[in-house]
Automatic annotation (TrEMBL), chain A:
The lineage of its organism: Bacteria, Pseudomonadati, Bacteroidota, Bacteroidia, Bacteroidales. The keyword NAD applies. GO terms for molecular function: 4 iron, 4 sulfur cluster binding; metal ion binding; oxidoreductase activity, acting on NAD(P)H; quinone binding. PANTHER family: NADH DEHYDROGENASE UBIQUINONE IRON-SULFUR PROTEIN 8, MITOCHONDRIAL, NADH-QUINONE OXIDOREDUCTASE SUBUNIT I 2. It comes from the Bacteria. Residues 57-89, 104-133 form the 4Fe-4S ferredoxin-type domain. InterPro entries: 4Fe4S_Fe-S-bd, 4Fe4S_Fe_S_CS, NADH_quinone_OxRdtase_chainI. The keyword Protein biosynthesis does not apply. Keywords: 4Fe-4S, Cell membrane, Iron, Iron-sulfur, Membrane, Metal-binding, NAD, Quinone, Repeat, Translocase, Ubiquinone. GO terms for cellular component: membrane. PROSITE patterns: 4FE4S_FER_1, 4FE4S_FER_2. This is NADH-quinone oxidoreductase subunit I.
TrEMBL record, chain B:
It is found in: Cell membrane; Membrane. It comes from Leyella stercorea DSM 18206. The keyword Nuclease does not apply. It comes from the Bacteria. This is NADH-quinone oxidoreductase subunit H. One of its GO terms (molecular function) is oxidoreductase activity, acting on NAD(P)H, quinone or similar compound as acceptor. Keywords: Cell membrane, Membrane, NAD, Quinone, Translocase, Transmembrane, Transmembrane helix, Ubiquinone. It catalyses: a quinone + NADH + 5 H(+)(in) = a quinol + NAD(+) + 4 H(+)(out).
From TrEMBL, chain C:
Keywords: Cell membrane, Membrane, Multifunctional enzyme, NAD. It holds the Pfam family Complex1_30kDa. Residues 278-446, 449-523 form the NADH-quinone oxidoreductase subunit D domain. It comes from the Bacteria. One of its GO terms (molecular function) is NADH dehydrogenase (ubiquinone) activity. This is Respiratory-chain NADH dehydrogenase, subunit. NDH-1 is composed of 13 different subunits. Subunits NuoB, CD, E, F, and G constitute the peripheral sector of the complex. It comes from Leyella stercorea DSM 18206. It is a peripheral membrane protein. GO terms for cellular component: plasma membrane. It is found in: Cell inner membrane. In the C-terminal section; belongs to the complex I 49 kDa subunit family. It catalyses: a quinone + NADH + 5 H(+)(in) = a quinol + NAD(+) + 4 H(+)(out).
Length: 178, 361, 523
């Protein structure tokens, strides 16, 4: 950056020096540990996926396996993409005689979702959440339309990944498959 | 040291004497055999080099390189070759069809032509003329025509710019390349490839030892100029992918592109091979003048020496490629005409003086 | 900043604007907002800034109806940055600028019908069929002016000579960092003129916002310059929070500052790598990408995203920081410092790099201000334009850090500017990371968010320049008009003056060095 006042040969000399430093750096890297993570070989062993990663939407269930959703459609309204479609019906409680909304179908189109988490923010009943289950590719678009209240979600394709999977440390690389 | 000419003369006898074939048939059969061997060697080396480039490049970049096809990805190149072979070959609207189709062949001819000059072992040269080096640099120039025709014939503006760049660069660097070779010829006194290698046998017989300072300078300049000739980074601006997408071979698919791809890697090998032949003694083993050590070193076959030296230089050139950024076209010309050319000329005079006064070993 | 507009009429507009520029020294045109003001008609708001004392002002003018067209005199002679900005207004609102040298559409196709940001625009799918033909292209542009009788005259002007060798760099090209198309007139290897064509990834975000609720608008900001996702969303939540008058807790300020800086490191690392890659040094690129991975890992643990961060929301953050966030961030800072030297060793200090970058794409301080080249590209010319210093937000006026400026005015100093800013970002993070106070990470908001009536402009320092959001609210649950000041638009406009007479390879170099990302330009 400083003014170039070097002679013809001085210029060559300093140029060669910078080239040599470059060669030295790459040589050093040639001998250090590599950084490639070997997915999918490591998918059930050393894979780490942040627990908060938004892979897909699932429904929270209580201990009896009943969904918490009340079909209030706040999430449907919050979604910028129209990803969620809720079908509900009014059911009369036989004991009290009160009419109450009941969920019939909770349709979530994974292919349309842009993972903005606005639906989760909108929900007042803690009925839905995002999980880090990311292996969602299928061969048919139709298969991406999920009915969340019908499915029994048990952790997706990688059962041990929901809490983040294997440990990781900043500054190190995970190149192992085992 | 094992002399490969034993085998060739045995074969010649077998055909002409034992089988009683005439000269025409003997030579025809021999030519076909040699041709098949050369092409086979060419293909095998291409596969090795492409795999090597991928792995070496990956290691320099903290990556693992291909890992999926076969153990350590060794079948990756075969998969790629297969893909390239079954790809549809199409041409571009408005392209100059004749130039467009001839061009890859010219490039591959130049590449195979120069490849045939390499001395693999004692007595195992394919082409061995008394004007060997001269002819070799002449054949290598055909490649420029191919590149230029491809760029012009493709009807693509990027390709034209790239062809101009390529031609300018290759023609410029041929000066240095030839001057470096002449420097070596001054010392060895012959242009014949086998003669040059013969001159380098014996204790510290390699030219870079024998010709010390001027030979080392010539060697280094040769590597730079050879790298430019092979169109490889940091001199790959003819196909500068970030500027001109793929340059002159943008519009080629299938084996048309495959030929350029092969030629690029083989040119790298050829340049390294010539450097190894002319400056590092070709197949000549490293001798230090102590009989015991020398006889052990002589036990190693010449082809191992040759390939070892060549791949050493190939690795060096890969190291350079994967370290430096690309130059700009005016800087490439500046480097040649302002620095390398004058250096070569001075070096040539220096070498002449060294030889005239007998100051070499 | 709540806008207190200076109202100018058509007749005194030109002279008053010239006074603002020349006498009051408002020499930096931040942005021009074209807006349909309803009954008042179409008009523009100009946000101006004085680079001596960082004072901002805004000017509003209503377009005059002439022969059925809305016209405003151009300000291109005063602020060169207006060239693309006025074309954008023409494209979206349909105001014709009198005297503008190149009044074509900028983002939309030349055969697009209507002006989408007018309130009477027909949004029905029938009226907006997807075109199945090639975009018609003309070698001519048009200049509008008023003749002696006050009638609108359109004069055709030729863009290319017959003998010009025109090469399209892009829209699909390895080093335009997206779908940017630079129609380049070449003379051999030399560049004679560049016409940028934008809009290949235009998604009409500003139009979409007008039909969204405020929380929904947030979902789109991360899709602009995806390398400055945090900063983009910061500007948007910033302007909404300012409009609503929300007081944030200290914890939110701390987290936001740290996250912004992490994002800046992320973006700068990618910048360093891409510059190297555009110059053919793939190895240096991969070193930067390798280390960027660690930055992403740190952020992902907290935000759940790598590219699309999705972290800020109106009134705070999406979630509290990860329990290991502090520890991870410290490890990251420790890891990164020595690595920056490695980038210099392998690429930045290399003699070839210097030859490729020094003196390439030069643009001095005056021109940088005139063309509104903000960010590291402007700072490399000595213009102190860092929004974090000019209009501090969050904790930037409380931490100690230095605004990097350099004097080279060329691509080399733009590169070094990024390197030095990396160190500054690390400094900022290290000062804050141990002191994150306890408190809420989110201030609870009403279920339906409404911003009171008014106009606001809030800007943050993105990774490659000032990113601002203008908000015009009529008190509804969705904005009346929201407009972004993208970082890259003015940078693209500056490419032509930077590169005339330089080589094709320099075009690539300069494009890499000024650091634009196309989704941010196109929106």
């Amino acid at each position: 950056m400083e003014e170039n006042k070097k002679s013809y040969f001085g210029e060559i000399g300093s140029a060669m020096k910078t080239l040599a430093i470059g060669m030295k750096t790459t040589w050093k890297e040639l001998l250090t540990k590599k950084s490639t993570e070997q997915y999918p070989e490591n998918r059930k062993t050393t894979l780490h996926v942040a627990a908060r990663h938004r892979g897909r939407l699932v429904m929270n269930r209580d201990e009896n396996g009943v969904v918490k959703c009340t079909a209030c459609t706040l999430c449907e309204k919050a979604c910028p993409n129209g990803t969620i479609k809720i079908v509900s019906q009014m059911v009369e409680n036989p004991e009290t005689g009160k009419k109450k909304k009941q969920l019939v179908d909770y349709q979530y189109d994974l292919g349309d979702c842009m993972f903005c988490e606005l639906c989760v923010n909108a929900c007042n009943f803690d009925a839905i959440k995002f999980v880090n289950d990311f292996e969602n590719s299928v061969f048919d678009r139709e298969a991406l339309v999920l009915h969340l209240d019908k499915e029994v979600y048990e952790g997706g394709s990688l059962p041990n990944i929901i809490d983040g999977g294997a440990d990781f440390e900043i500054g190190t690389f995970n190149t192992k498959t085992k | 040291m094992f002399d490969f000419s034993n085998i060739t003369s045995w074969l010649h006898n077998l055909l002409s004497v034992t089988c009683g074939l005439g000269d025409f048939w003997t030579i025809l059969i021999e030519c076909i055999l040699v041709g098949v061997c050369i092409l086979a060697g060419y293909a095998i080396l291409a596969i090795i080099l492409i795999f090597m480039e991928r792995k070496v490049c990956a290691w320099f970049q903290c990556r693992l390189g291909p890992m999926r096809v076969g153990p350590w990805g060794i079948f990756q190149v075969f998969a790629d070759v297969l893909k390239m072979l079954i790809k549809e070959i199409f041409s571009v609207d408005g392209a100059d069809k004749v130039l467009y189709y001839i061009a890859p062949f010219l490039v591959i001819i130049a590449s195979v032509g120069t490849f045939s000059f390499l001395p693999w072992n004692n007595g195992a040269q394919v082409l061995d003329f008394n004007v060997g080096l001269f002819l070799m640099s002449a054949i290598s120039s055909i490649g420029i025509v191919g590149i230029f025709m491809a760029g012009w014939g493709s009807n693509n503006k990027y390709s034209v710019v790239s062809a101009m760049r390529g031609a300018v660069q290759l023609i410029s660097y041929e000066m240095s390349l030839a001057l470096c070779l002449i420097t070596a010829v001054v010392l060895t006194g012959t242009m014949k490839v086998s003669g040059i290698v013969d001159a380098q046998t014996g204790a510290f017989g390699w030219l870079i030892f024998k010709g010390h300072i001027p030979a080392i300078i010539a060697f280094l300049v040769f590597l730079v100029a050879g790298n430019a000739e092979a169109n490889r980074g940091p001199f790959d601006l003819a196909e500068a992918e970030s500027e001109l997408t793929a340059g002159y071979h943008t519009e080629y698919s299938g084996m048309g592109f495959g030929f350029y791809y092969l030629a690029e890697y083989l040119n790298l090998f050829v340049v390294s091979g010539i450097a190894a032949t002319v400056f590092l003694g070709g197949w000549a083993p490293f001798n230090i003048g102590v009989a015991g050590v020398d006889s052990v070193l002589d036990m190693i076959p010449g082809i191992v020496w040759f390939l070892g030296k060549t791949f050493g230089i190939v690795f060096l050139l890969m190291w350079v490629r994967w370290t430096f950024p690309r130059l700009r076209v005016d800087q490439i010309l500046k480097l040649e005409w302002k620095y390398l050319m004058p250096l070569c000329l001075i070096n040539l005079i220096l070498m002449t003086v060294v030889v005239a006064f007998g100051w070499h070993f | 900043m709540k806008l207190e507009n200076i109202e100018l009429s058509f007749d005194n507009f030109a002279s008053e604007m010239s006074k603002l520029k020349n006498q009051k020294h408002f020499d930096y045109l931040v942005t021009i907002i074209g807006e349909d003001f309803g009954e008042e008609g179409l008009g523009c708001i100009y946000i101006l800034e004085n680079t001596d004392n960082n004072e901002r002002c805004s000017v509003r003018t209503i377009a005059k109806k002439v022969d059925g067209s809305d016209v405003i005199p151009t300000v291109v002679e005063l602020w060169k940055a207006a060239e693309l900005l006025e074309r954008e207004v023409y494209d979206f609102v349909g105001i014709k600028f009198l005297g503008h040298p190149d009044m074509r559409r900028l983002f939309l196709r030349t055969d697009f019908n209507g002006y989408p940001l007018r309130k009477d625009f027909d949004m029905s799918p029938e009226a907006n069929q997807f075109p199945l033909t090639d975009e018609p292209e003309s070698d001519y542009t048009v200049v509008y002016s008023l003749d002696a009788d006050g009638r609108l005259v359109a004069t055709k002007k030729r863009l290319f000579e017959d003998t010009d060798f025109v090469v399209n760099i892009g829209p699909n090209h390895p080093s335009t960092h997206g779908v940017l198309r630079l129609q380049t007139v070449l003379d051999g290897e030399k560049v004679k003129r560049i016409y940028p064509h934008l809009g290949y990834i235009h998604r009409g975000i500003e139009k979409m916002w007008e039909g969204m609720t405020y929380p929904q608008t947030l979902a789109l900001t991360d899709r602009l310059n995806y390398l400055s996702a945090m900063m983009h969303r910061h500007a948007l939540v910033g302007v909404i929070e300012e409009g609503m008058g929300i007081e944030l807790t200290d914890r939110i300020h701390y987290i936001r500052t740290i996250m912004d800086e992490l994002q800046r490191i992320d973006s700068h690392l990618l910048y360093l790598g891409c510059t190297a890659q555009d110059l053919g040094a793939l190895t240096a690129f991969l070193y930067c990408m390798r280390d960027r991975e660690h930055v992403l890992n740190v952020m992902e643990e907290t935000t759940g995203g790598r590219l699309i961060q999705n972290y800020y929301r109106i009134g705070g953050c999406q979630a509290d920081i990860d329990p290991k966030f502090v520890e991870n961030t410290k490890k990251l800072c420790k890891y990164l410092r020595p690595m920056i030297q490695e980038y210099l060793d392998v690429f930045g200090d290399n003699v070839i790099t210097h030859n490729r970058l020094v003196g390439v794409g030069p643009m001095g301080r005056e021109d940088c201000i005139n063309y509104a080249v903000t960010g590291p590209a402007g700072r490399a010319a000595g213009w102190k334009n860092d929004t974090r210093k000019r209009h501090p937000y969050d904790l930037y006026d409380k931490v100690e850090w230095e605004e990097i400026t350099m004097t080279g005015c060329d691509s080399m100093d733009r590169y070094y500017c990024h390197i030095k800013e990396l160190y500054q970002s690390l400094n900022i993070i290290e000062q804050l990371i141990d002191n994150i106070p306890e408190g809420d990470f989110y201030v609870k908001q009403k279920p339906i968010i409404k911003v009171p009536e008014g106009q606001w402009y809030f800007s943050v320092e993105g990774a490659s320049g000032e990113f601002g959001v203008y908000l015009d609210s009529k008190g509804d649950k969705s904005p009346y008009r929201m407009k972004m000041r993208p970082m890259g638009l003015t940078l693209t406009g500056a490419l032509d003056p930077m590169l005339r007479g330089q080589k094709i390879a320099d075009l690539i170099t300069t494009g890499a060095a000024i650091d634009f990302v196309i989704p941010d330009i196109d929106r």
